[in-house]
Design a protein that fits this description.
Elements lengths: L1 H12 L5 E4 L3 H12 L8 E5 L2 H10 L5 E4 L5 H5 L3 E4 L20 E5 L6 H7 L3 E8 L8 E7 L5 H12 L2 E5 L5 H28 L4 H21 L4 H7 L6 H11 L2 H19 L1
Parallel strand pairs: 1-2, 1-4, 2-3, 4-5, 5-6, 7-8
Antiparallel strand pairs: 6-7
Helix pairs in contact: 1-6, 7-8, 7-11
Bound molecules: NADP nicotinamide-adenine-dinucleotide phosphate (NAP).
Length: about 280
Amino acid sequence: MGGCKDLCLFLINQVSFKLGIIGFGNIAKAIVNPLLEKKFINPEQIYCIVKSNKSFDDIRNSYPYKINVILANSIDSKLVWDAPIKILSVKPQQLEELIELPSNKNKKDTIVSVLAGVSLKKLERKFPNHNCVRTVTNIPILLGKGLTGITWGSSVDEDKKIFIKKIFEKSSKIYELPEDYLDIFLSLTASAPAIIALIVDSLSDGGLSGGLNKKLSEELVIEMIFGTILLLKESNIGTTELKNMVTSPGGTTISALNILEKRSFKSALIEAIIAARNKSKEFS
Ligand SMILES: NC(=O)c1ccc[n+]([C@@H]2O[C@H](COP(=O)([O-])OP(=O)(O)OC[C@H]3O[C@@H](n4cnc5c(N)ncnc54)[C@H](OP(=O)(O)O)[C@@H]3O)[C@@H](O)[C@H]2O)c1
């Protein structure tokens, strides 16, 4: 840990050290904000590219940190491509229009992609002058509570791996995985928040049907999920035991569970996760 801290400090403290960001939208900001808040890096060490004048002006005038912002296709974009580590955070459909600018260093720089469903092979074809890293992260990174799966492409230096993990650790918990697992990781962590949102909405509609107003119903559902998840996470109670604890013979809970069983709730969830995994595989 000490060695890593020293190494990260060493990298960052080099006057010339730059972190490049290609595409500075929602996800890139969620990754970069905690680095700046926690003073892991200085604003002037960040060089980002955006496409539109509007985003350029917004970042210049309203982003709380004075980072360097550059318009795509301007001559200054070379400053971003010069960075030894670049986070790639455009939409997958915007990837095609990017043009790699190779640096004149004798060592390859590294591109860290957060693009959903874009394989390492595709990244390495697109950026032949870079070592590539594929990550999958999820929306709770907005609150520093994300999960990030990382697959390293070939030839990424150990010191860069440590540094990249440090970047994502500021907003998420890291899992280093073979690429084959990234599609199911994406399905479970990046797509499933939509399933949870649907469950919250549906259960609170249940409350609404029972006569509560929607706002109170939703509040109760969110607090209930939060408490239940904490119990599962922080006690030794497992899912089956918890289910048994709240299900008494002939009682209310078994009446509810029987309906879900009749409507194939469990197999619908399993199929949903596998469908998202398959779609991600198809994209990549
Ligand atoms: N949503 C999720 O749950 C989630 C989770 C993890 C990862 N992701 C991935 O995160 C990536 C970014 O998503 P996002 O929601 O942050 O998108 P976003 O807010 O639309 O940001 C995209 C950024 O890319 C810039 N851009 C577009 N074309 C460009 C070009 N040719 N050169 C340089 N910059 C360009 C855009 O600039 P302008 O604003 O000027 O157009 C914008 O700053 C996606 O690939 C997505 O798959 C999403």
